[in-house]
Structure formats: structure tokens, C-alpha cells
Amino acid sequence: MHNALAAWWREPYNRRTPAMASILLTNGWISEGFRDAEQSTRWRDHARGLVSGYVETLDPADEPVGVERTVATRTKTIAVSGRIDRLDRRGDELVVVDYKTGRRPLTQDDARGSLALAIYAIAASRCCARPATPSSCTTCRPARSSSGSTPTSRSPAI
Fold first, then answer.
1. In terms of Cα–Cα distance, which of 96, 71, 95, 94 is closest to 81?
2. What is the distance between the alpha carbons of residues 24 and 7, in angstroms, rounded to a whole number?
3. How far is CA 102 from the centre of its chain?
4. d(CA 79, CA 64)
5. So what's the pLDDT on residue 157?
6. Edge-to-edge strand order for the sheet containing 66-74?
7. pTM over 0.90
8. Distance between CA 62 and CA 59 in Å, rounded?
9. For the chain, which end, N or C, has fewer CB atoms within 10 Å of the first or last residue's CB respectively?
């Protein structure tokens, strides 16, 4: 899903549509790791709904500062690096966006309580020489769901 969303931002503006997000997810789908082809298909279709539903909420003209961007920083004691799903500019501030696909929608408190997002914000701030906040934890959800459920059986690591 992350790869499909990153590829969606690389598309020309006029091709950044929910349908394109579905195509990108389908084209990049890796079926290994699933019990069988049926399970892979169920999860692929579910993921396609998550990705296309999520991009319906985005403004395709609102170019991110970075997508799947690696940032790093160090202190006297440790050096850390990580990859940010998306880095947006909101006014004079950078905002770290972290994609999630959990069962419950995440809140701003979830974002503020995330150690990983805090580290990403510090690293992004230092890399880009402007203030950054870990204030956006985005849960990908389908726009419309006929059943409101996710595929049954254990979720593979996607």
C-alpha cells in the first residue's frame, strides 16, 4: 500500500485519481506470503478499497515535500534514521504523515504519543531546516464498504 501511495504522488496531477491508486496497488501487489490465491485476492481487493478511499480525501494538487523520504539525526549518544511515508508543508511548518491501516481510526493523541513520529519530526526538522511536527497519523479507510468488514483470517504483513 505504501508503494502504491508513493507511486500515486509521482503520477502527473491529472492522473492522481482513486482509479489510478487502485491500478497502482494492483500492479504492485505481491501475492507471496498468503495462504493461497483466494486469500491474496481478498486482501488485495480490501487494500485497493483502502487506497482508493484514502486518496479520495486528498487534494492531488497539494504536492508533498517528500514521499517515502529518509531522514536522520543524531545526538551525542545515538544516531537514528527512518523513512517518512509523506512529509507535507502546512504554512511554515512541516508535518510528518504516517499511513496506518488498523481497525480503529487514529487520533491526534495517537500521533502525539508516537515515539517514531516524534523522532521523524526531529529528523525532518533538522534535514529540512524548518520546524516539523508529528501531528498527522492517517488511517487509510475505504470510502464506501458494502460489508463494512475486512477479509477474514489473519492479516499478512503488508
1. 71
2. 7
3. 12
4. 26
5. 38
6. 66-74, 79-90, 93-100, 132-139
7. no
8. 5
9. C
pLDDT value, residue 152: 44
> Do residues 34 and 43 touch, judged by C-beta distance below 8 A?
yes
**How far is the C-alpha of 97 from the C-alpha of 102, rounded, in Å?**
15
Q: How many residues in total does the chain contain? A: 158
Sign, CA dihedral 122-124-130-134, equals negative
* Higher-pLDDT residue of 101, 30: 30
Q: Where residue 149 falls among pLDDT bands split at 50, 70, 90?
A: very low
**Distance in angstroms (rounded) separating the CA atoms of residues 121 and 118:** 5
Torsion, Cα of 156, 55, 99, 91 (10° steps): 170
How far apart are the C-alpha atoms of 130 and 112, rounded to whole Å? Answer: 19
